[in-house]
């Protein structure tokens, strides 16, 4: 029998399970509370199946499997994947996310499967992936167990490295749905592993942060390398599959839909075609995209760091496509309707057809374009009837974007304009304790400087305002132009108007366009003013306190897990700890050592040291110990105490070995309390990196174990693995040296 088969038999210890009769239902329960091969339970909430396989066999098509807090377990004696060949939802019984430990080699669907609020632990390093195989795979707030390898998501079929399918019958269309901010996986591959795929694939990613997902590939991949003969080594991890559209292509259509999900990189090369990508987002995020067929920005702002120069682009009315990082770039067809942002010195060449009406901006603007260069071609195009609107930067109010033979170009500079050179606010906090703001106005002093010829006043500058009050943020809001030709910022919901003139910004409840509003409420208003200067936008902020109000301190970044019932913060934290120690020693030592540590430690420590050390050590050991000794005296005192002693000593997971002849005694030490029956101990013998033998060792209730080193293996490298009953390691590999070592 091959060595690998022997190892599998030793490690799995699979017994023939008794047949458990249970009535199938739309909801069955499973919770791993027995042994690896204990097929017990009836599937009810009161008597859940011990093994996940029993729950999967019992649940009806379209039903639900609920996993208890202790998790679920899938046993195995081979390297074949777990096949889920029915439509089923697998979810947590409670709010906690239990672990589903799978010793099969990956997961392949034969039906539409949803995982919700669970942790997937793929113990087997072979096929560390989930393959949709032409069905719908939904992962809602699901992550892989961080102590096992990274799990990848596959749209197609799983083949072995010889091209033999390891999957059930392929479905009609693959759909991968990832959602929830807790979802965390590796790469996503639209196609198959070790083979091609001829079905359509849709990938929907909703509300998943970019750091929780690797790259997205629109093709299949060659499976990564994994040394299955060294599967006991916790550092032996499979490499990620290598994408390859030529050999592992997808001949169906691939569509990738992102909703509030910032995927760092997407490759749309399917092999025979290209993927289409659509984006919906409430926030700005950036992405690198390659080999995309059609990019659609439905809503929100997408900032591109890379894009292929023959992509077709569509910007819908609420979408903003920021291509300012690309400098001079090109696209094929351009379907307008939203906003296009280029760099100040950028150029977009439309090689195909231009259609629709799009707002053009350069980067750096707030509700308008940033600063643009005069007499510059920004959009080069010759086909189609599309057009661009342009709302110039405030200091370039006379600039236009005009259609020319070559495309769209800004106008020439005709005269020297008067522009704002600098803008500042004299102060950072202003207190209106007398409520002047409701009696007339309250002035915020400012400093301004203009350049150019002619008269200009700050009231003629379209400032932009943002106000935060009571946890809500209003704006950024553009100023409105009054009938007098001046600008003011109105916030009707706050009954507040900002009216700049000369050296002040007046805050009042009267607006030239709205009229008198209700009184401005007492409280703290955080105001940011954005001013368009000749060199770009500048932001200045201040705090306006209306009424006799004391502003709260800046809140902590993260709230405490359990807030105090009645918090009473100190006015000023103690900068330096008190010099006089407490009469009784604290259970936890102070941060700093005593002022005078022992200059020269005694050669032999006292049998029972004093509870409180003397200021200066005596030359000779104390003849009569003090009444109250320390619990455990230091065997050999240190020459110099550490600056910050450990308050509570930690216990590192380890194994202590002693030897009696050829027999090795082992003492397992864990920093967490577990049951001895959940500890699995394996002894591995290697010679020149060649595996010679694996032995399973029983662990006693007192966490001790013993084994005998075979005579022919005394000079080999001996390692001990301590795992739990789900084959996850408790600690790093423990090395046992040979009899030549000084350890024994």
From TrEMBL:
Positions of the UniProt region annotated as Disordered: 550-645
Protein's UniProt keywords contain Repeat: yes
Signal peptide: 1-22
InterPro entries recorded: Plasmodium_CSP_Invasion
UniProt KW Signal keyword: yes
Record keywords, A-Z: Repeat, Signal
Name by which UniProt lists this protein: Uncharacterized protein
Organism: Hominilimicola fabiformis
């Amino acid at each position: 029998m091959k060595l690998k088969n022997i190892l599998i038999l030793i490690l799995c210890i699979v017994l023939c399970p008794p047949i458990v009769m249970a009535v199938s239902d739309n909801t069955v329960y499973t919770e791993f509370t027995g042994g690896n091969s204990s097929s017990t339970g009836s599937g009810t909430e009161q008597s859940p199946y011990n093994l996940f396989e029993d729950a999967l066999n019992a649940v009806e098509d379209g039903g639900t499997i609920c996993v208890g807090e202790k998790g679920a377990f899938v046993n195995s004696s081979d390297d074949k994947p777990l096949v889920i060949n029915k439509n089923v939802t697998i979810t947590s019984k409670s709010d906690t996310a239990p672990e589903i430990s799978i010793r099969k080699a990956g997961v392949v669907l034969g039906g539409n499967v949803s995982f919700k609020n669970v942790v997937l632990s793929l113990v087997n390093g072979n096929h560390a992936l989930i393959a949709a195989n032409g069905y719908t795979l939904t992962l809602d707030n699901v992550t892989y167990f961080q102590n096992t390898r990274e799990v990848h998501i596959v749209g197609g079929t799983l083949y072995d490295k010889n091209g033999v399918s390891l999957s059930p019958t392929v479905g009609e269309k693959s759909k991968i749905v990832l959602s929830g901010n807790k979802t965390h996986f590796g790469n996503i591959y639209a196609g198959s592993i070790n083979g091609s795929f001829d079905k359509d694939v849709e990938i929907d990613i909703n509300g998943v942060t970019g750091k929780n997902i690797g790259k997205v590939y629109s093709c299949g991949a060659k499976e990564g390398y994994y040394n299955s003969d060294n599967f006991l080594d916790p550092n032996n991890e499979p490499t990620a599959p290598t994408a390859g559209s030529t050999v592992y292509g997808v001949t169906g259509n691939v569509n990738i839909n992102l909703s509030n999900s910032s995927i760092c990189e997407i490759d749309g090369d399917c092999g025979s075609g290209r993927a289409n990508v659509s984006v919906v987002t409430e926030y700005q995020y950036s992405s690198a995209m390659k080999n995309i067929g059609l990019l659609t920005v439905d809503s929100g702002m997408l900032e591109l760091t890379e894009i292929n120069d023959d992509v077709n682009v569509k910007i819908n009315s609420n979408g903003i496509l920021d291509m300012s990082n690309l400098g001079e770039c090109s696209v094929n067809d351009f379907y307008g309707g939203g906003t296009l942002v280029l760099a100040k010195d950028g150029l977009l060449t439309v090689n195909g057809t231009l259609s629709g009406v799009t707002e053009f901006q350069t980067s750096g603007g707030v509700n308008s374009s940033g600063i643009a260069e005069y007499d510059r071609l920004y959009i080069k195009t010759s086909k189609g009837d599309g057009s661009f609107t342009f709302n110039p930067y405030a200091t370039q109010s006379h600039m236009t974007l005009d259609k020319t033979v070559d495309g769209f170009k800004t106008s020439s500079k005709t005269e020297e304009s008067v522009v704002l050179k600098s803008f500042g606010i004299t102060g950072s906090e202003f207190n209106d304790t007398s409520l002047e703001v409701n009696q007339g106005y309250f002035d915020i002093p400012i400093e301004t400087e203009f350049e150019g010829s002619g008269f200009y006043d700050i009231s003629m500058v379209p400032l932009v305002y943002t106000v935060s009050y009571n946890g809500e943020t209003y704006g950024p809001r553009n100023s409105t132009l009054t009938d007098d030709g001046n600008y003011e910022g109105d916030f009707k919901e706050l009954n507040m108007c900002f009216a700049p003139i000369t050296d002040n910004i007046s805050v009042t409840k009267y607006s030239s366009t709205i009229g008198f509003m209700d009184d401005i409420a007492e409280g703290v208003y955080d105001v940011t003013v954005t001013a368009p200067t000749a060199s770009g936008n500048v932001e200045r902020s201040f705090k306006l306190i209306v009424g006799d109000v004391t502003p709260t301190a800046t809140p902590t970044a993260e709230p405490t897990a359990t807030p105090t019932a009645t918090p009473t913060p100190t006015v000023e934290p103690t900068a330096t700890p008190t010099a006089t120690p407490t009469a009784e020693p604290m259970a936890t030592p102070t941060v700093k050592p005593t002022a005078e540590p022992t200059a020269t430690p005694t050669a032999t420590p006292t049998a029972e040291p004093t509870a409180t050390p003397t200021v200066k050590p005596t030359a000779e050991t104390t003849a009569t110990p003090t009444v109250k000794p320390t619990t455990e005296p230091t065997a050999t005192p240190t020459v110099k105490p550490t600056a910050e002693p450990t308050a509570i000593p930690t216990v590192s997971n380890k194994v202590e070995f002693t030897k009696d002849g050829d027999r090795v005694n082992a003492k397992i030490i864990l920093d967490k309390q577990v049951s001895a029956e959940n500890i699995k101990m394996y002894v591995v013998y290697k010679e020149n990196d060649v595996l010679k033998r694996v032995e399973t060792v029983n662990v006693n209730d007192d966490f001790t174990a013993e084994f005998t080193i075979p005579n022919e293996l005394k000079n080999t490298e001996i390692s001990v693995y301590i795992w739990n009953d789900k084959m996850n390691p408790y600690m790093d590999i423990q090395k046992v040296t040979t009899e030549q070592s000084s350890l024994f």
